[in-house]
Design goal:
single chain; 244 residues; 9 helices; 7 strands; 20% strand; globular; disordered C terminus
């Protein structure tokens, strides 16, 4: 019953998002405003990955809120192996697409706040814009706690999210430095290794991407306050380190 409720909530969030923004909101072929937003996001992901001190081919990876696995190509081109990759999501229809594209990977239809996974079983626990879809404080904390639980000591958490909330959607969330400390215990339970800046705050980023491409990365570099999407790299501390 819990999975059904969470699935309906997530479906409602995405339905509301695309109803407001349009069906082609993230369509690289149909929407020119997506291109440089996507390139900036990909660059931030790659820069963040440089801080993971384990061979990519050896990483056992969990994608929390994986959806259809649309971002997995970024993991695989950096050396992560599909057979070492597990995805978990509450939207069963989206999980079906992963089997079509990545049959070696494993997918789980389950609630990220109650994951049916063993403690300390993954080298890298990953999420992409999951917290942007969650506004309820207790749910956000449960998901974060579960991500920490299934991560190995000295393993990594890679959080790709928006540091600012969508002001037009009361059901949206954000993941800024303060949230990072509250939800993931940055500085105690985990250690912040790096922050990589990515896409600009919409609609500015989409406007520049569509009509002023040469200025996109110039503005992102000169005015970092206008960057909305970031990648945080956390390392889970061992028991001794976490208590020190």
């Amino acid at each position: 019953m819990g999975n059904l409720v969470r699935e309906l909530e997530q479906r409602a969030w995405y339905a509301r998002y695309y109803a407001q923004a349009g069906a082609d909101r993230n369509d690289l072929c149909a929407n020119r405003g997506v291109l440089f937003q996507t390139l900036a996001s990909e660059a931030s992901f790659i820069r963040a990955f440089w801080h993971i001190g384990v061979s990519s081919s050896d990483l056992r990876v969990l994608d929390v809120g994986c959806g259809s696995g649309a971002t997995w190509y970024q993991l695989f081109r950096l050396g992560v192996k599909p057979h070492n990759t597990v995805g978990i999501d509450v939207q069963s229809d989206r999980l079906k697409h992963i089997g079509e594209h990545y049959p070696q990977a494993t997918v789980l239809f389950a609630d990220a706040s109650q994951m049916p996974l063993a403690d300390e079983s993954f080298d890298l626990v990953y999420e992409s814009t999951l917290f942007a879809t969650l506004s309820e404080r207790s749910l956000r904390q449960r998901v974060a706690s579960e991500m920490i639980r299934v991560c190995k000591p000295n393993g990594y958490l890679l959080l790709v999210d928006w540091r600012v909330r969508n002001p037009f959607d009361a059901g949206s969330g954000k993941l800024n430095r303060r949230e990072l400390q509250q939800l993931f215990g940055a500085g105690t339970t985990t250690r912040l290794l790096a922050v990589a800046r990515g896409a600009l705050i919409p609609p500015l980023g989409r406007l520049l991407s569509a009509y002023a491409e040469p200025f996109y990365f110039l503005i992102a570099g000169l005015l970092p306050a206008l960057v909305g999407q970031v990648v945080y790299v956390l390392q889970k501390q061992s028991n001794v380190e976490a208590l020190s």
